[in-house]
Amino acid sequence: MDKSVLFRLTYGVYLCTSWDEGRPVGCVANSAMQITSDPATVAVSIHHKNYTHRCIADTGYFALTILAKDSDPKLIGRFGFTSSENTDKFEGIDWAVRGKLPVPADGAAWLSCKVVDKWETATHTVFLGEVFDGGVLKGGEPMTYAYYHDVLKGKTAVNAPTYREESAEKGKYRCKLCGYVYDGEVPFEELPEDWVCPVCGVGKEMFERI
Predict the structure, then answer these.
(1) Which candidate, 102, 149, 128, places its Cα nearest to that of 32?
(2) Structural domains in the chain plus CATH codes
(3) What pTM value is reported for the model?
């Protein structure tokens, strides 16, 4: 099969959040979709190895924050390339409890869901959630997965349903945490020392020459 046909499917970019015994947790999700309208239900695919997976399974609840094109891309780095098991992903960001669940503020809109069913695959669980609350945050145009890749130059976490090996771009510099490849007009060596990765926020010392 030509797996490149799968790259033509379209996706959004979401933060999927839940609770871990009263502590807010979350991860990035790009495979989420509405299933029915009445009652409103959505499905989200979460890798078995994600710490958030266990928390959703334990609590039976999850929220989706729909990221906007002007949402801070560092949210993707924080929620997508670190683990809630040993990182407080909500530290230092604006968030609130909405519909009983932790919701970051820097998004277009949010949905709170109760798990009503699930389907297991070899690597992921697809949680089906009935939406019981939701609202607009700052609005704006939702971020698409294509925008994240083509404009923000972001990479895919290994646990994402859409993960694929990407060829190296020799002569450039790559973030060792999130995989972002710097290809700006200013040579990497001439960037100021306080420059940080636009996706995950780490410093220049976390970049390696390809």
Answers:
(1) 128
(2) 10-147 (2.30.110.10), 167-210 (2.20.28.10)
(3) 0.77
Cα 85 to Cα 27: distance, rounded to the nearest angstrom: 11
Exposed, middle or buried by CB within 10 Å (0-12, 13-18, 19+), for 54? Answer: middle
Query: CA separation (Å) from 180 to 5, 77, 157, 166, 207?
Result: 24, 10, 11, 11, 9
Residue 166 Rama label (left phi>0; alpha psi -120 to 50; beta)? beta
User: Per residue in 111-164, pLDDT tens?
Assistant: 999 999 999 999 999 999 999 999 999 999 998 877 776 666 665 655 555 545
Q: Which three-class secondary structure state does DSSP give residue 188?
A: helix
Chain mean position to CA 76: 5
**How far apart are the C-alpha atoms of 96 and 78, rounded to whole Å?**
17
User: For residue 59, which amino acid is it?
Assistant: T
Buried b (16+ CB within 10 A) or exposed e, 140-154: bebbbbebbeeebbb
Residue pair 29/64 in contact by the 8 Å Cβ criterion? yes
Q: Tokens for 108?
A: 């277009």
8 A C-beta contact, residue 53 and residue 121:
no
Q: Which of 21, 52, 20, 23 is nearest to 127 (CA)?
A: 52
What is the per-residue pLDDT across 151-171, written as a single tens digit (0 to 9) for each?
666 656 555 555 455 544 556
Residue 24: cis peptide before it, omega within 30 degrees of 0 = no
- Among 88, 210, 96, 71, smallest CA distance to 151 is for 71
